Amino acid sequence: MREHPTARTATDRTRGTSFDGNELVIGYPSTDEPVIDDESVAVPPGEVTALVGPNGSGKSTLLKGLATQLDIDAGTVLLDGQDVAEMGTKQLAQNLGLLSQENIVPNGFTVEDLVYHGRYPHRGFFESVTDEDETAVEDALSLAGVTHLRDRDLGSLSGGQKQLVWIAMVLAQETNVLLLDEPTTFLDLQHQLRVMEVVETLRSERDITVVLVLHDISQAARHADHMVALRDGSIFARGPPGEIVTEDLLAEVFQIEATVSCANGSPQITPLRPIDGGMATDPDDGTEREEPPADASTA
Ligand SMILES: Nc1ncnc2c1ncn2[C@@H]1O[C@H](COP(=O)(O)OP(=O)(O)OP(=O)(O)O)[C@@H](O)[C@H]1O
After folding, report:
1. 60 Cβ closer than 6 Å to some ligand 1 atom
2. Complex ipTM over 0.90
3. Residue 74 belongs to what H/E stretch?
4. How far apart are CA 171 and CA 137, in angstroms?
5. Would the pLDDT of 10 be above 90?
6. Rounded CA separation 162/146 (Å)
7. What pLDDT does residue 277 have?
8. What does the DSSP 8-state code read for residue 101?
9. How far apart are CA 289 and CA 272, in angstroms?
10. What CA–CA distance (Å, rounded) separates 171 from 165?
């Protein structure tokens, strides 16, 4: 396999870039109360951290605050010890990549155009494409598995194809810290696995520090080194999946009754029923009956 331009060798291998949010207060102009109120996250350098929690628990808000996409009301975000608030836009973009949930597809852009756009932090305004840009773009297209789509107009792609192309763009940025908000959205199972393999490659071969929001806690438990579980804007638990994914956590945070066993070194979750309901109306006679177990293979 071709050596990635930023890949570290065994001898100069470090543990990746540190990325910490300290005493963060993050909210929206339209709301009186902050969503995240005085929370700290220390992301282990060179590892994969998953933010998990139910809908509306604050995962995206926290990620956007860490990515400086939302103004933080208080607290600091430190990248390799440096306050991101003191970094210029270009310096920040050279160090921190974000795959957001809200991506606007530019008119008339091909896939290749968009992926080249990921190189903007590394280029001057009037500078032409360098060999390094070309290598990074080819690498990103290939890693995301979208090389065959390179000449397609972005507007002509399916939701899943677009998602992979946005991932390719953020990979082309070649940052040491990568924040991914629900990178597996819109993707079928094969492509979800591909994305998680890409994340694994970034971690194991390139020492990239990855923070990702995942809805599927089973997927998070399988692929993350570290998990941060949010409930109502507060961090309820943090640590390695094997330590924090428990039946109690699933009940307290996700409001589901589930069993947790260990398979291949990671927690295996079998969801049984929602805790705050669990009753459904029988279509035959209108009486309430216990909800049958949800699909037992995923959470
Ligand atoms: N633009 C906004 N303006 C005001 N409130 C917002 C805005 N975006 C999110 N919120 C609120 O902030 C809280 C946290 O939302 P957030 O999107 O961070 O949660 P989440 O855990 O990522 O949810 P989901 O899993 O549904 O994507 C919710 O109460 C939500 O209504």
Report:
1. yes
2. yes
3. strand 72-79
4. 8
5. no
6. 10
7. 55
8. S
9. 15
10. 10
